[in-house]
Specification:
The structure is a homodimer of 397-residue chains.
Chain A: H1 14-23, E1 33-37, E2 44-51, E3 57-63, H2 79-94, E4 102-106, E5 111-115, E6 121-122, H3 123-128, H4 136-149, H5 158-167, H6 171-180, H7 199-207, H8 209-224, E7 228-230, E8 239-241, E9 246-248, E10 255-257, H9 259-275, H10 283-307, H11 318-343, H12 349-352, H13 357-376, H14 386-396
Antiparallel strand pairs in A: 1-2, 2-3, 3-5, 4-5, 6-8, 7-10, 8-9
Helix pairs in contact in A: 4-10, 9-10, 9-11, 11-13, 13-14
Keywords (chains A, B): Amino-acid biosynthesis, ATP-binding, Kinase, Methionine biosynthesis, Nucleotide-binding, Transferase
Enzyme class (chains A, B): transferase
Subunit structure (chains A, B): Homodimer.
Amino acid sequence: MSAKKSSLYESLTESGAIALAKRLQLFEENSNLTCNEIGDGNLNLVFKLNDIETGEGIIIKQALPYAKVIGESYPLTLDRSRIEATALLKQGEFVPQYVPKILYTDDQLAITIMEDLSRLQIARTALIEGKDLPLLSKHIGEFLAKTLFYTSDYGLNQHSKKSLVKQFINPDLCKITEDLVFTDPFFNHDSNDYEPELGPDVERIWQDQALKLEVAKLKQKFLTKAEALLHGDLHTGSIFADDKETKVIDPEFAYFGPIGFDIGQFIANLLLNAISRDTENQEVLYTHIETTWNVFAKEFTTAWKKDALEIFTKVDGYLEHVLSEIFEEAIGFAGCEIIRRTIGLAHVADLDSIQPYEKRIVTKQIALSLGSELIKNQKNITKPEQFKEYVKQAVTL
Amino acid sequence: MSAKKSSLYESLTESGAIALAKRLQLFEENSNLTCNEIGDGNLNLVFKLNDIETGEGIIIKQALPYAKVIGESYPLTLDRSRIEATALLKQGEFVPQYVPKILYTDDQLAITIMEDLSRLQIARTALIEGKDLPLLSKHIGEFLAKTLFYTSDYGLNQHSKKSLVKQFINPDLCKITEDLVFTDPFFNHDSNDYEPELGPDVERIWQDQALKLEVAKLKQKFLTKAEALLHGDLHTGSIFADDKETKVIDPEFAYFGPIGFDIGQFIANLLLNAISRDTENQEVLYTHIETTWNVFAKEFTTAWKKDALEIFTKVDGYLEHVLSEIFEEAIGFAGCEIIRRTIGLAHVADLDSIQPYEKRIVTKQIALSLGSELIKNQKNITKPEQFKEYVKQAVTL
């Protein structure tokens, strides 16, 4: 990992953030501003600025040259700030309604200034609180279809696509996913983090050569399949939402990868929330999963029929082949995400907040079983309705 | 297509080539040099310089900012000169014995100076003349295994691989392959070029939706599967050889693509030569095909076991999966290459030089049938020995 810390780079302070906002005339000259660093992430400073009188606000995000979670010893390229801002602008071309407005970017200082979304709630938190977020999956289905189709060789001319691929070569952030999603959880690696009671289940995963062969193939796809510009980290913690609105944030992991990865990560995080609930409250999540896929497939098909630039899109059966390959890969990627969120370095609150402890352990065992079965049954699952069956099956295992 | 013609660029003349060689001290100061432009390609000037007294020679290759075959109206980026030189140097790290020595490069002038290989013969010409080139397939099998393994995520650390991917983004040259290999021959396109007697066979290809669906999938792999640094144009006209030595030249189409593409193109060109011969003289080509794959698989396996950096390479069955996927894709790519060399823009002398005319037409019909069957039977061919059967079958169709 290389952290090319530009000589012009310095970390913003709260007063520096206010000065920058004023210099850029993002507020009235004499406005009275408050500023709070609200970053709960591991990689960035996030300042929230508000005008005390009008209440209007903006967010100033600055990438740090290291990962806070592990300390300064884990350097991370500041280039991810450029990647994130460029991805937000690119996604904004296709679905401005689902990404924050970008007000200013500075690649040297690794700063992006954007719309304040604090009227909304992080989707993970809302789902943990039992909220329905009724439009979440419809919006994300459309976000996925449009951002992925129009950056793929189906919907973008192949010359422009290759220039974009070059702009979004993102080795440092991809490496995090390669290690933490696709590798470490499947081997006895220091970065793993799980309760001792899960030991036998974890050991079973590490011994399961058939499972690991499928993970190897999925990792290879993540490494080599430059199909479309992915968000790259599309879990429910990267989404702001309420009953009416949805905004996808934090695409610093963006790169050209397999379409199924974004879909699989999102579905996996819905499943993780589902299994954290009592059975009678899970249905809304399964409906979200079905809607995500159905809206994705419908919108992708519409774009394919209306805007495809690739002449082979007219060939009988090609669309069906592409959609079924995407679905199959999404299932496998979802399985990897569920496993790594249970025993890998980065957990999810959906599972970790389960009380009492015994119930948490049982739920995590279900998660591991579900993740493994999804990975091993990619070819047997052909409809989004089947995810529910696999959860039921995992509960009884 | 963009041809960024640098302000420093100018085409070399024969006297300019001599002056350059002297300035670079590639010959003794007072040596008496001859210089001939010997380029028979469509895209470059190629000067052969020789010292009259010692006989020693060098090649100065300069990319032209347009494709000569179609005239100045088809501009081509000079960046392909950088791509070619960088690819030759990279391949030279793994198999110096199979690529020409590079003496000098100038990206601005799009010039590469390299070892003169005129002691050898272009493999296509030698094969058309009925020569055996006994070591050709052993050498190419090793060339393929080493250049592809050590530039893939299996044998190269994933950070370096991504930097290489970026260096080898090659939109203009990839576009030629995308159009001329994977698209135009399968549709009624102006660039196609075939004898009127082939009309019904060509029409049958254009109507064959099952065939075109497979070609669509192969084209998608060419567009998206960034598996290893390909040569990108590995036909028998890109190889110099004699009974003892083999040198692969002209990697200006190099980019990160599916490993099976290089293998498939080479095998296709051996098959095109085979079907141009009488049955009793074909065996040597089938042996070359088997040797190519067997040496490739053996050397790839050796490198995998010795030098793999990817931890999943230790997982049971992964190597076998990777090899069988490469083989399957190679068959499909070989089928596309055979069809496009028969009815597309760029033909091969193996077919075009067949006399009399009627025999040429029959052979081209066999080629079209063979190409189609390979594409449709990718999953049914599991051993290189089976290519021979498919030729026999194509002859009787």
